[in-house]
Amino acid sequence: MKISILTATYDRAKMLKKLYESLIKNIKEKLEIEWLIMDDGSTDNTKQIVEQFIEQNKIQIKYKKQENQGKMVAINNLVMDATGDVIIECDSDDYFIENAFSIIEEEFNKNKYRKDIYAICFLKYNLQNKNIGKEFKNKETTMFDLYFKEGEDGEKSLVYFSNIRKKYRYKLENNERFGTEARLHHEMDLKYKIICCNKPIMVCEYQKDGYTKNIQKVFIENPQGYFAYFKEILQRDMKGVLFEKRLYTIKHYILFSVLSNTNIQINEIKNIYNKILLICLYIPGKIKSKRFLISAKSSKNIL
Q1: To 10 degrees, the CA torsion angle through 207, 210, 215, 221?
Q2: Can you give the pLDDT at residue 301?
Q3: pTM, two decimal places
């Protein structure tokens, strides 16, 4: 079995060592590891640090550098270079637990002949060794059902089957630099499912300059992609979706219509129940969204 790790990094040279060491700890017989790194225009010593890793010759490392275009473009540019049976996208501030690849190999061998599965979904832990979110209720599901019907609200670690992952790319609207990974997952959900495993494989260490910590700025700078994402949700069958998730979707659909200066078309909404909710929430939602825009732009986090 061969595992491809894809990492997009920008000025995170100091963080890469912990991820690299976690890969070394996971070396085992008859298991190949390749680490594909896309340097997204770093101005620090990222290249020199990676060259030191390569010189040690412990795992296969492929380093590339592009002009700063954002994480999504970086991953899109790496995916087709992956040669593993599975692909794992790992941020530079994440790292693997010591027995992660043994867990992955075991689950992969159970499901490697399935033609209807695009990923195995594992738990992700924080630095306090706590699960980020909830444990899985179902063995097989989709990412949409997991978050919109089963009530998940935390992060997970996805191990993609390479032959399927390579068919898809992150979609970016009008030269925006970021979009939610969920948009990719929901597209894959239309044809395939995921296998869930209540075991952790990865630890997440949020950084002050990361997307999660600067979500207001992300929203302001990438509104069209997020608008397209919530529009796509409202155009699908939402039978069984939790009420709070309906509200969440409609509120954010209104928010990003304001941020992207895009008019809402009621006939684009598939479900009559959602249309009624949208009509009821539109005016107060638009007022609140404009307040959010004013507040966000006045924040020192927004450029």
Answers
A1: 160
A2: 47
A3: 0.93
